[in-house]
Write a structure and sequence with these properties.
about 260 residues, mainly alpha, about 0% strand, globular
């Protein structure tokens, strides 16, 4: 409980920073909006998805990519605090050692909520619609944010393991591109070479995207050329992937924090 209370204090500190430097929120919102417009109006005309408008097919992938990319801010923020000596100040205070990590991941989760809200409005403008009940729509967004929160702990481990903000920024983003593009986020995996298709189908991003499309009614016609547990049970596979990420990277983040703070 102490870690949660102290973590919320740290989270508020990070949110106040966004309020004072609104450029952080503005530029983290512009990129996903650009992806929506580019894929909807530039590439969308040449990508055909049976049984559904490409713009509806696209949005679940864009949302998932956005929270994944947004999680990289966790590592950059922690690396910046390390270089500026903020972590040393936190260590001198009577507060939980886990509060810094809990606060950072929580504030970035809330930042993701704001960015996704703006993106949802943009999606509605370009033609995205949901076709299920409100409970399923809300549940889909809940799964999306849970995935983004888990990804923040991976980014936290990276940010605490490097020695500069520049390295944290590069290391935090470079692996995101194959993770999000080698998936069903933007195109159906059935058109990929067989090896890449199998990799994409087992990619947790694909499972999240597939589950969101189902929960929002943006799934299109069933594709029989793909099979396997992640394709047949994307919801369960998504939850298992999230639990595994948290189980692995929360302890690794705490360990990296202790080592970084002692340097």
């Amino acid at each position: 409980m102490e870690a949660l209370v102290d973590g919320w204090v740290v989270a508020k500190r990070n949110l106040i920073k966004i309020k004072r430097v609104p450029d952080l929120l503005i530029f983290s919102t512009i990129q996903p909006i650009m992806f929506v417009l580019l894929f909807a109006y530039v590439f969308g005309g040449s990508i055909k998805v049976p049984g559904i408008s490409y713009r509806e097919f696209l949005m679940a992938g864009i949302f998932t990519q956005t929270v994944a990319f947004g999680s990289a801010l966790t590592g950059v923020g922690l690396a910046e605090d390390m270089t500026k000596g903020i972590i040393d100040r936190f260590r001198s205070l009577p507060m939980s050692r886990a509060a810094v990590l809990v606060g950072r991941t929580t504030s970035d989760l809330l930042n993701n909520v704001l960015v996704v809200a703006v993106m949802a409005i943009c999606g509605l403008i370009v033609g995205w619609r949901t076709h299920t009940n409100a409970l399923e729509v809300i549940g889909g967004f809940g799964l999306l944010f849970l995935f983004g929160y888990a990804m923040s702990w991976i980014s936290a481990t990276i940010g605490l393991s490097v020695r500069s903000v520049e390295v944290a920024q590069s290391a935090g983003f470079i692996w995101m591109f194959p993770l999000t593009f080698l998936s069903n986020a933007f195109v159906p995996t059935k058109d990929m070479p067989l090896v890449l298709q199998r990799i994409a189908d087992w990619n947790p991003v694909s499972a999240i995207v597939l589950q969101l499309r189902g929960m929002w009614g943006n799934k299109g016609l069933p594709v029989k050329s793909t099979s396997g547990f992640p394709v047949e049970h994307p919801g369960w596979y998504s939850l298992v992937a999230i639990v595994v990420i948290l189980a692995v990277f929360v302890p690794l983040s705490i360990r990296a924090y202790r080592k970084a703070a002692s340097r």
